[in-house]
Amino acid sequence: MKVSEATLVSPSTLDECLLLLNDQKHSVQLLAGGTDAVVRMKEGVWNPDTWINIKNLDALRYIEEVNHEIHIGALTSHTDLVESKLINERADVLAQAAKEIGAIQLQNMGTIGGNIATASPAGDTIPALFVLDAKIELRSLTDTRLIPIREIFTGPGRTVKKSDEIITKIIIRSQDEDEIGIFEKLGPRKAQSISIVNVAISLKMGEKPRECLEGKIAFGSVAPTIIRATKCEYMLKLNPLFDDVIHDIASAAWKEVMPISDVRASAKYRRNMASSLLERGLYRLMKRWEEQ
Amino acid sequence: MKSKAKKDVLNEEQKLKWIGKSVKRIDGPEKVTGEQKYKTDYSYSNMVWGKVLRAKYPFAKIKSIDTVKAEAHPDVICVLTYKDIPGFNGFGIVTPDQPVLCEDVVRCTADAVALVAAETVEAADEALDLIEVDYEVLEPVTDVENAMLQGAPKLHKDGNIHSHVTIKNGDIDAGFDEADYIFEHTFYSPRQMHAFIETEGGWGRMEEDGSLVIECPGQYGHRDKLQIARALALNPERIHVYSSPNGGGFGGKDEITVQIYLALLAMNTGGRPVKIHLSREESVIAGIKRHPFKVTVKTGAKKDGTLVANKVRAVADTGAYASLGGAVIALAIEHASGPYTIPNVDMEGFCVYTNNGIAGAFRGFGVNQVCVGIETHIDMLAEKTGLDPIEIRKKNAYKQGDISSLGHVVKSSVGTIETLDKAAACDLWKNRDYYKNQVSEPWKKRGVAVATSFHGVGMGIGTPDYGAATIELLQDGKFKVGVAIEEIGTGNGTVYAQVAAECLKCDINRIVVVQGDTKQTLDSGTISASRSTYTGGRAIATAAPNMINLLTEEAANLLGVSVSEIELAYDRLVDAHDHTRFVTYEEIYESLHDKHRSKRVEGHFYLPKEKEELKNSGGAPHHLYGYMTHVVLVEVDTLTGQTDVIKVVAIPDVGKVLNPQGLEGQTEGGAVMGIGYTLYEDVLIEDGYHKTKNFTDYIIPTIRETPEIETIPVESNEESGPFGAKGIAEVVMIPIIPAIMSAIYDATGARVYHLPATPERVYQAIQESKPQSLISR
């Protein structure tokens, strides 16, 4: 299919979109912010008969608190997340991650649903969604299912989403007053860069100084998909997070990851950076916790 | 103080109205609003699209090329191969060793094999896929040292060493014998990309009169015209090249880019205009790059800080073709011992062919790669001896009239010591301990360092360097100033307007500058070699008196007085005895027009040259050099190796500053490009294939990587220059490179010898230098 011969349709409702996705005769491709889709089109990787432009499906663009959970419409832009009071107060790690994505222009166009669908191992919002126990709602014409984020990715660029499904909603837990999160990213430069390694952390703190009751850590760009650092998570609960403990926990991080070498960094460096970013993140978190 | 007093006298004497002022860019509003159109922004209703088929392999024999299927495509207008080239199948500024379209062999993936013109971009792309090229793949030559070995596959019939230059002075062995300290290191530099905003592209079209028009951004339209003519076997007078404005050049559009392809296609499209505009991906592969160098430097010094010997061996990877590679390595060797008086030097450089793309001209032209050796060694010497790094540099710097390391007497102005004095006195250097202590987190370390360097202005010996300008009086009383030298983003047109307005004593709004137009302007050389302000400015200053004579004579006629009684007043010519009697430029135009007299004058200027070329040096020494010192503050995150340049003090000696705002534009742009070179940028090529495809992985600094940059100019009046000016555009990105490298060392104790100093390389160097606890407690 030539790009110039492809059809572009813009459904005005979700039902209309689901109907289009159900079309068995033609190949279809969803187009939300276009920050990944257009690149793939130009590379010749995606050449569908029909582009389904969902950018204007405003029904899928919302952020709301429901029973101690936060529901985020799939077409919510990264800028929406950055600017949301609710996200900043109850899911700080996601707000920070959204702010680290590419450049402002990409944050304005790109959507959280698109970031999940692209399924890049370096996707910046995904580690944050891991530590916030996200559940992803997938809908087709006939079915609605809710998949935990840990089960959604099958490999780089691959998810369990079927071709007739669309990501409609992301449900995350709302952090309590005693919870605190951070996103750390190492890219080749500060802005407009793809993560060499990134990490999201969400901690539940106790009464005692630097006491951590529970914590979640997720790394990006160090495995075929985003991964949780379960060994480090256990260690968080053993001792108060003073600097030497942080250092020890961070030192264990390299055992959690299995990165590859590519044009951006060597596997060895990525391993070391998993430790460095975790150390930097925990240090900054504790500093912020004590200042609160 | 002395020079300031001298400058004031100069200003007072000349009462300068435009020179030395921050006159706003004449093309500023259009550039800022985006209203200005580049050549590649235009479209025509009857246009066709041109595309280039690039080589599939970095090194292969072509057994056959079959275009039948591509030609059968309904939307294809023509498919061209080497057989369709009427003239010489080659181009190259100095050595035309690059085929326009390859015939029997491809030497890099930038090579062009065929051209297509089609109704749409999509059809052109499809046609490229339909061209069948049968290759016999060869093992690529990718390492410069291996390429130089006997028995390496030869890329060109004379072998893989394109050029070998040497400069020797004194007795190198005796020099090292008397040295108390000897430092020897090998430095590797990146394949930097120009990364201009406008990729290579343009238009070709045949006019009804059979002449050929090429509208294509370039850095020397008159030379492009000759290269096109050679390939087309066409009278150059029948070719008109419009090469300005450019969406950035930096040397990357000095060589032919797509002009000859446009010309060939335009001759085969039945008069329809043809456009080629490279995608960023094609530009990365096909465009020239900065030469990656391997430089081994051995420096000997005495305990008192005197440099006594410097031995340099530099090897440049020029890729598959020469372009300006020979000149780049020559300039590198000329500058490899710094602006110093080292009595014993032994320097040699090799320019070597490989199958790694193509390298050519790039801002700095070889000096970026070699300046790191001598400057790093001076800092090492400072550390060993405990001497001040600025004092060591001052002690060894040559002054005007001194003998340089090359052994020649430097006759033009030299500002090195003044730039170093200003560096020593600047806030960042004086209070460096204070700044270094301002770290925000315990694993961050800060460092401050200084470096100085220089850069030749204009071409070396053996390359004629010449400027010409025309000034034409227009009907509305304005002056059309024609200088062929293109606008590539530098703002030279504004300087030309300033010089013209100053010389003609008129308002700057009366000056209309025409650049990059072979039909309207005289050949005035390249926009390169930091030469355009100096050469273009001097050419205008030479033309201006001719215009004043023309105006004065006609004013005398009109006022009925003798020529000696006419005074040039602001915006008019007056009777010296009676200032109420005057004539306007409009009146003069009308009078000349009625008499069918020419309203146009010319000015020609030859750049001063040294008389004797250093044997085997490839063109050294230059007559003129610009000098520069940088002081930088960096912060290194020792957890990750990320380096942040926080503050830059740029201290250029560029002769008289003609436009302070323009100068700051250069010092700031140069600093950022130098930061990119030192910390981020490299086009990675493996086995002849580009691993770096586009800006996703080619990292240039953004505004977030841009530090505070302070500019403190030193104005060493250069007698030969227009109003005392020299060149600026290249030296501004040079000393910042070793300065950042040394500041990283100052911060962390780790030295990086392989640029760019990416986080991974810095982190590794820190790990190797000393085991550090991640958080200092």
Automatic annotation (TrEMBL), chain A:
<feature type="domain" description="FAD-binding PCMH-type">
    <location>
        <begin position="1"/>
        <end position="177"/>
    </location>
</feature>
<dbReference type="InterPro" id="IPR005107">
    <property type="entry name" value="CO_DH_flav_C"/>
</dbReference>
<dbReference type="Pfam" id="PF00941">
    <property type="entry name" value="FAD_binding_5"/>
</dbReference>
<dbReference type="InterPro" id="IPR016169">
    <property type="entry name" value="FAD-bd_PCMH_sub2"/>
</dbReference>
<dbReference type="InterPro" id="IPR016167">
    <property type="entry name" value="FAD-bd_PCMH_sub1"/>
</dbReference>
<dbReference type="InterPro" id="IPR036683">
    <property type="entry name" value="CO_DH_flav_C_dom_sf"/>
</dbReference>
<dbReference type="Pfam" id="PF03450">
    <property type="entry name" value="CO_deh_flav_C"/>
</dbReference>
<dbReference type="InterPro" id="IPR002346">
    <property type="entry name" value="Mopterin_DH_FAD-bd"/>
</dbReference>
<keyword id="KW-0560">Oxidoreductase</keyword>
<dbReference type="GO" id="GO:0071949">
    <property type="term" value="F:FAD binding"/>
</dbReference>
<keyword id="KW-0285">Flavoprotein</keyword>
<protein>
    <submittedName>
        <fullName>Carbon-monoxide dehydrogenase medium subunit/xanthine dehydrogenase FAD-binding subunit</fullName>
    </submittedName>
</protein>
<dbReference type="GO" id="GO:0016491">
    <property type="term" value="F:oxidoreductase activity"/>
</dbReference>
<dbReference type="InterPro" id="IPR016166">
    <property type="entry name" value="FAD-bd_PCMH"/>
</dbReference>
<dbReference type="InterPro" id="IPR051312">
    <property type="entry name" value="Diverse_Substr_Oxidored"/>
</dbReference>
<dbReference type="InterPro" id="IPR036318">
    <property type="entry name" value="FAD-bd_PCMH-like_sf"/>
</dbReference>
UniProtKB/TrEMBL annotation, chain B:
<feature type="domain" description="Aldehyde oxidase/xanthine dehydrogenase a/b hammerhead">
    <location>
        <begin position="33"/>
        <end position="139"/>
    </location>
</feature>
<dbReference type="InterPro" id="IPR037165">
    <property type="entry name" value="AldOxase/xan_DH_Mopterin-bd_sf"/>
</dbReference>
<dbReference type="InterPro" id="IPR016208">
    <property type="entry name" value="Ald_Oxase/xanthine_DH-like"/>
</dbReference>
<protein>
    <submittedName>
        <fullName>Xanthine dehydrogenase, molybdenum binding subunit apoprotein</fullName>
    </submittedName>
</protein>
<dbReference type="GO" id="GO:0016491">
    <property type="term" value="F:oxidoreductase activity"/>
</dbReference>
<dbReference type="GO" id="GO:0005506">
    <property type="term" value="F:iron ion binding"/>
</dbReference>
<dbReference type="Pfam" id="PF02738">
    <property type="entry name" value="MoCoBD_1"/>
</dbReference>
<dbReference type="InterPro" id="IPR036856">
    <property type="entry name" value="Ald_Oxase/Xan_DH_a/b_sf"/>
</dbReference>
<dbReference type="InterPro" id="IPR008274">
    <property type="entry name" value="AldOxase/xan_DH_MoCoBD1"/>
</dbReference>
<dbReference type="InterPro" id="IPR000674">
    <property type="entry name" value="Ald_Oxase/Xan_DH_a/b"/>
</dbReference>
<dbReference type="Pfam" id="PF20256">
    <property type="entry name" value="MoCoBD_2"/>
</dbReference>
<dbReference type="Pfam" id="PF01315">
    <property type="entry name" value="Ald_Xan_dh_C"/>
</dbReference>
<dbReference type="InterPro" id="IPR046867">
    <property type="entry name" value="AldOxase/xan_DH_MoCoBD2"/>
</dbReference>
